[in-house]
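Pipeline run #58 for the internal structure catalog. This entry was flagged by the ingest filter as a single-chain record with no existing model, so it goes straight to prediction. Upstream metadata was stripped on purpose; only the residue string is passed forward. Reviewer on rotation: M.T. Logging verbosity set to normal.
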Amino acid sequence: TTRYLFLDDYVDRGYFSAEMVLYILAAQVRYPDQITMLRGNHESRDQTAKVDSGTYLEVKTLYGADIYNELMKCFDHLPPCCVLDVKGQRFFCVHGGISKDFPTIEKLAKYNRFNKDDANLKGSGCRGLCWADPSSSLSTKDPQPKVRSYNFKGAKITGEAGDKKIYGEPNFKKSPRGSGIYTFNEKALHWFLRQNKILTVFRGHEQKPGFEIYGPGPNSAGIPAIVTVFSAPNYCDQSLAEGGVVVVGNSSFEVKTYSFRLHPVYTTARHATDPFRKHTLMEDYMMWLNEKDANLLRSVSLTHLRGLPEARTFISIMNKNRARQASLADLADSTSDWQFLQCMLLEALRLSDNPKVQAYRRKIIKVSKESAWSNNYAYMAD
């Protein structure tokens, strides 16, 4: 039986925040022994209320303020971290990283996180675990290695933790992310791993092209001290990077990546909030045109697309159940965002015989061979 551990940030990561978190919550209710959800820095009122994230407006518009408040209460109860034990080999799983306030797993286990500060991720409790980052001094000689599988059978922790003073300043530095947030260096990390008999730390929090693997930790098997896994492909529909996942078996773990797919077509246009409305409108329009008549899409000109008679029909369909009415002007605004639309155009126009489209695609493929951030372009060009 496969078990799933989620490292948080279920919202504020693009479209469908409400659907994403409600789906995972439903899965946990249905399969309580197979689904584990941790808490991240975005599972908080402060982060979800920001206008640029849109989660508060999205949930409030779709389901009402009461549902949003209940969702926040649910977030308050999510654990910030856990220990994954595989036949005696232990892995520390957390959204951000280690915290200078919790040098041992035992102290973490005894901590009462149900208080006002931790509910809002303030103070010195869960905030550090949800917001921390490895410092730039940590070894990442090959963050995207071709070999991503590690055998931990029989692995042993090497060396002693040493003086507890190591787990403090100056090995924790104030982070530019905000007050009460710190970065940690290799000395602090290795002290934590040795002290708690942990092989490695699995964490998220930082946007990476799927994952980032750091240098080996204090163990006999060369297991990396920390692995950052970023599971959102095409992050916020802008980065075009792959998503990552760590698959842990009985004696080894492997880091894998996967590509994104276009969003499903919603003729009811449930993207009701301003941060989501502009970008999704042209995407839905192109997909609707593709289903209606693929030949209509065989043009490089976005101005041509929005000038089609079908545009009015599309807008009227979208507005039937739309909380906020869309207009042709919204569609025109949507077509101005080339950074967002370039990947959608490549997908929608993949069957085009227009020479300009093919030339643009070849250019993007060339870029993809030089950057891990652009691996998805190869998928779109297939």
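catalog note: The chain is about 35% helix and 15% strand.
catalog note: Residues 274-292 form the longest helix (19 residues).
status: ready for reviewer M.T.
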